[in-house]
Design brief:
By secondary structure, the chain is mainly alpha-helical. The chain has 12 helices and 2 strands; from the N terminus they run ααααααααααββαα. The chain has a domain of about 100 residues. It has a two-stranded antiparallel sheet. The radius of gyration is 37 Å and the shape is elongated. Bound molecules: zinc ion.
């Protein structure tokens, strides 16, 4: 065929007709593919002009997709899935795909879901409707995975401060009450079977507390702030708390009590075993230290 010339429409139709129904063997298909690959392709390195692009787009506009209204069979779906398994789009492709669907290019740009759709989406994602299988699959998928520092920073920036959907807002009293009730009593992670309602021993009186505070030089034994530095929310002086090291309210021996400020005492609600060990060690060391100081510098205490 002479370069630049074209087949007549009639010729094209005839060629198409004669090829209809013929099946190309896989071997031949591969050969054909090889013959037009890369530099062998007459379009290699070239690009369509904007005009041709527009023309192509125009000619395809309004054309119904051959798949419209149809669904792939399970077999086809499996084949498609198999072909794509293990393949990952390159970073470049990912960026291109992302750019293509950003902002105004997104098919959902400026649109909003109907209340009905929103409700359905919310229900689907609430987790309550997840089948046990799906739950297991999700759990397996996330096991051991940790967001990289980069991702964490991104997430934080995306949801932090003014970007947070709740920025500057407060819950109304009704919601606050519901939220509070959700974490009350047995529902709270810190629930220890109601021991906070048990009474303290008789020995745990004002005199003993004062003795412990004096023994600890009126300083929080964790952050070492002095009692005179502690104030309530209403700026009134606050006393140091006498903390039961082993969390037994009836064990009021002096070696089970230590002075803590409100802030440090709040920390001891978690990891109780660790804190018990920690304070027992600390008190022992402090007592040894004091005996030593008392002997050498009697005027210090
Ligand atoms: Zn403290």
């Amino acid at each position: 065929m002479i370069k630049g010339s074209r087949h007549s429409l009639e010729a094209i139709r005839k060629m198409s007709e004669s090829h209809k129904g013929t099946v190309v063997s896989p071997g031949h298909r591969k050969k054909l593919s090889e013959a037009f690959k890369g530099k062998k392709n007459h379009f290699f390195g070239r690009k369509h002009t904007l005009e041709s692009k527009r023309k192509m787009s125009q000619s395809l506009k309004g054309r119904k997709s051959p798949m419209r209204g149809k669904k792939h069979s399970i077999q086809t779906k499996q084949k498609m899935s198999k072909r794509k398994k293990g393949k990952k789009a390159s970073l470049q492709t990912k960026i291109k795909m992302s750019e293509k669907k950003k902002g105004k290019n997104n098919s959902f740009y400026g649109k909003k879901h109907k209340p009905e759709s929103r409700r359905r989406i919310s229900e689907n994602n609430s987790g309550e409707n997840f089948s046990p299988e799906r739950r297991k699959r999700l759990s397996e998928l996330h096991k051991g995975t940790k967001a990289t520092l980069e991702t964490r920073i991104k997430l934080c920036e995306a949801n932090g401060g003014e970007n947070n959907g709740f920025y500057g807002k407060t819950h109304n009293p009704k919601t606050r009450k519901i939220l509070s009730e959700q974490k009350m009593g047995e529902k709270n992670a810190c629930w220890r079977g109601g021991i906070s309602f048990q009474p303290y021993g008789v020995a745990f009186n004002r005199k003993l507390k004062e003795f412990i505070r004096a023994r600890d030089n009126y300083r929080c034994q964790e952050c070492f702030r002095h009692e005179t530095e502690l104030f309530t929310k209403k700026s009134k002086p606050r006393k140091l708390i006498c903390h039961h090291i082993n969390y037994l309210k009836t064990d009021n021996s002096t070696c089970n009590l230590i002075s803590l400020c409100l802030k440090c005492h709040g920390k001891t609600n978690y990891k109780r075993k660790d804190w018990t060990k920690y304070f027992q060690k600390k008190l022992k060391a402090l007592q040894l230290h004091r005996i030593f100081v008392k002997k050498t510098l009697p005027n210090q205490f």
